[in-house]
């Protein structure tokens, strides 16, 4: 049970950062460059499913178990969005493998985006985490990017799709940079806390 008493947030932020980097890359590949190679799509689908399963599992742990040193509020702040992110990622991966229209993913991602924005705004207002502004920017980027998935996969106009793809990629890459930065800076602090706990 010792794993329940650790703080894996740094690793989780890295996974989330990699996921959003993947989202941005795929937006450029599939919708801006208009490429649709089956092998690339399948590889990306497996990437989505694997990262999505990880994200959903840890989201549920944060939301339900809330491992120390998180309070219930912090568990909800990170856990609920991770569950949504994991679900969207898994569903999208399965749809790509099954060659199903991504328009259904767009609906799910749109509402997941709204959900993420609400969490980010409320977390910022409450001054949660040591960097509330970074938290807000991360959640806004994820939320806006998620909401842009809907027009990205349903718009018939190719020029409009390219514009939306650029905006979505910017949002996703922004989230990737922020999460990777926060995850990197968190590693040292978490190792220090762990060393103190062992002393």
Fold topology:
Layout (H helix, E strand, L loop, with lengths): L8 H24 L5 H28 L6 H26 L5 H23 L6 H23 L3 H41 L1
Helix pairs in contact: 1-2, 1-6, 2-3, 3-4, 4-5, 5-6
Task: Give a quick summary of the entry.
The chain has helices spanning 9-32, 38-65, 72-97, 103-125, 132-154, 158-198.
Describe the fold and architecture.
The protein is mainly α. The chain has one domain: Alpha Horseshoe (Serine Threonine Protein Phosphatase 5, Tetratricopeptide repeat). Helix content is 83%, strand content 0%. The chain has 6 helices and no strands. The chain has helices at 9-32, 38-65, 72-97, 103-125, 132-154, 158-198. Helix 1 (9-32) runs antiparallel to helix 2 (38-65), helix 3 packs antiparallel against helix 4 and helix 5 (132-154) packs antiparallel against helix 6. The longest helix is centred in the C-terminal third of the chain and has 41 residues, at 158-198. The chain is globular and about 55 Å long. The chain starts with 8 loop residues before the first helix and ends with a helix. The model is unreliable at 1-5 (pLDDT under 50).
Q: How is the main sheet built?
A: none
Provide mean pLDDT, rounded. Answer: 87
Low-pLDDT sequence parts? 1-5
Tell me the Rg in angstroms: 17 Å
Number of helices: 6
Instruction: Give the helix proportion (percent range).
Output: over 70%
The tally of strands reads 0
Work out the count of structural domains: 1
Text of the CATH class = Mainly Alpha
Distance between the termini: 20 Å
Mass-distribution shape: globular
């Amino acid at each position: 049970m010792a794993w329940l008493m650790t703080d894996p947030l740094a690793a989780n932020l890295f996974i989330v950062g990699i996921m959003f980097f993947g989202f941005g890359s795929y937006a450029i590949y599939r919708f801006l460059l208009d490429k649709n190679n089956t092998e690339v799509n399948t590889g990306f689908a497996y990437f989505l499913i694997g990262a999505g399963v990880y994200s959903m599992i840890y989201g549920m742990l944060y939301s339900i178990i809330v491992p120390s040193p998180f309070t219930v509020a912090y568990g909800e702040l990170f856990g609920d969005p991770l569950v949504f992110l994991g679900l969207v990622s898994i569903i999208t991966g399965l749809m790509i493998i099954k060659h199903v229209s991504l328009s259904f993913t767009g609906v799910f991602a749109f509402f997941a985006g709204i959900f993420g924005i609400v969490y980010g705004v409320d977390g910022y207002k409450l001054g949660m985490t040591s960097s509330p502004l970074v938290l807000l920017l991360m959640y806004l980027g994820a939320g806006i990017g998620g909401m842009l998935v809907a027009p990205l996969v349903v718009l018939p106009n190719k020029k409009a799709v390219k514009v939306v793809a650029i905006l979505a990629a910017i949002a996703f890459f922004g989230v990737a940079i922020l999460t990777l930065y926060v995850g990197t800076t968190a590693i040292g602090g978490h190792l220090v806390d762990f060393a103190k706990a062992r002393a």
